[in-house]
Amino acid sequence: MKVALLFSSKAGMEATLSHRPDERHDEEDEPPSPVDLFAECDSDETIAAVGRVLQERHQVVFIESDEKAYARLKRQRPHLVFNIAERVVGPNRESHIPTICEMLDIPYTGSDPLTLGLCLDKSRAKEILSYHRIPNPAFWIVESAAGIPAGIRLPAIVKPLFEGSSKGIKNNSLVHSLGDLYERVEEVIAAYNQPVIVERFLSGREFTVGVLGNTPNHEILPIVEIDHGQLPSGAAPIYSYEAKWVWDTREKPLDIFKCPAPVSPVLKAKIENFVTRTCAVLRIRDWCRVDIRLDEKGEPNILEVNPLPGILPNPEDNSCLPKAARTAGYSYSDLIHKVVEEASKRYGLRPTRIRPAASERPAVLADRV
Predict the structure, then answer these.
(1) Who's near 65: CB < 8 A, 6+ residues apart?
(2) In the prediction, which pLDDT does 365 show?
(3) What value does the CA radius of gyration of the chain take, rounded to a whole number of Å?
(4) What are residue 60's phi and psi, to 5 degrees?
(5) Share of residues in the chain with pLDDT > 90 (%)
(6) Does residue 237 sit in the same domain as residue 341?
(7) Which of 73, 142, 160, 297 has the fewest Cβ atoms surrounding its Cβ within 10 A?
(8) How many domains in the chain?
């Protein structure tokens, strides 16, 4: 097959933002961009790794998810888009590429635009889960510090409403007092220019669960536990931006993950049941990663749903979905090909393996279309 790899590189998204006309003229009053602005974007290493895997079986076209993506897809007309594009701006940014694919009638991997938008907007996903009686922490949406409602139960977590990759979730996001709550709400709203979600903090163990396939045949990968005891002394017991991107480095990785997690058969069954139900009601497709935390009674609650999961290729980078896949017996190549196969089955495609000539294989990402 001819497969287009759609991605959001850090350099590409930075260039896209720099080309936008700035309608706000009072630049001196603008807050600086947050340091984690491009945290969701893929590294060149990841993009190249996924591309190499796809080239094992297919002819591959590399396409940056910028303003030229529509024209490039229209011209290339691939049989399938392998979508890892997150984009940067707006609550529906993860829906941009799938929407373009649907406009052009091009099959693509992963969930559809509605599911991607719902899962990125944490409140909308939680509302659907609550309707279906799938446990998740109590939450409040706050648009300004002055609008913080009475009755918020502390301690609580303060997050940007529609971000991923732990963006905006810092070590100080766990608040224990009203003063800290007001300060953190003001800080997040100013930095990310969006409402915040204040969520009741659950004090129990934390897990993340990878899922492959489609309803009713989801494959639940081995559960990964996030061991907060491995964080630096005094750190909040949360998987924060610092824990994910600052304290955990390739040179000195945190031994923070346990896979498979040491859980009882009863707890494992509960977690897998909630994950399966979550994927069904949110109409997740092909792959996903679901974050879970236990409450004070030891009962699992859904924290977040990630239908565009991170897939760092290097085992030392502590990327949870590839880690769970490796534990299940999948290589990195197996994982990527599995997603292609699941999407192909949904669309009724019959992948023909095309080994492109060496001259057609992009040796570096500069050869992108």
Answers:
(1) 6, 7, 8, 12, 13, 85, 86, 87, 96, 97
(2) 44
(3) 20
(4) -120, 135
(5) 69
(6) yes
(7) 297
(8) 3
- The answer to whether 236 and 155 have CB atoms below 8 angstroms apart is no
pLDDT band at 267 (very low <50, low <70, confident <90, very high): very high
Q: Which of 52-61, 76-85, 242-251 has the lowest mean pLDDT?
A: 242-251
- Helix 332-347 crosses helix 320-327 at what angle (to 10 degrees)? 90
Say if CB 304 and CB 129 are below 8 A apart. Answer: no
Pick from 261, 293, 288: which is nearest to 277 by CA? 288
| Residues 336 and 257 reside in one and the same domain | yes
Do 169 and 201 form a contact (C-beta atoms < 8 A)?
no
DSSP-derived letter for residue 258 is E
pLDDT digits (tens, 9 = 90+) for 108-129: 999 999 999 999 999 999 999 9
Amino acid identity of residue 313, one-letter, is P
Q: Is the dihedral of CA 30, 33, 34, 37 positive or negative?
A: positive
Identify the pLDDT of residue 318.
79
CATH of the domain at 297: 3.30.470.20
Q: Please check the confidence at residue 288 and state whether its pLDDT lies above 50.
A: yes
Asked if 209 and 274 touch (Cβ cutoff 8 Å), the reply is no
Residue 367, pLDDT above cutoff 50: no
Reported as a pLDDT band with limits 50, 70 and 90, residue 356 is very low
Amino acid at site 154: L
Task: Identify whether residues 233 and 332 lie together within a single domain.
Answer: yes
Residue 114 lies in a domain: no
Is the same domain home to 235 and 335? Answer: yes
Eight-state DSSP code of residue 146: G
* Closest CA relative to residue 365, chosen from 56, 2, 9, 3: 9
Provide the domain limits for residue 301: 203-345
Are 166 and 247 in contact, with CB atoms under 8 Å apart? no
Strand-pair category, 2-7 with 59-64: parallel
Judgement on whether residues 100 and 140 belong to the same structural domain of the protein: no
DSSP 315: G
Tokens found for residue 46: 């990841």
Looking at residue 355, what is its pLDDT? 52
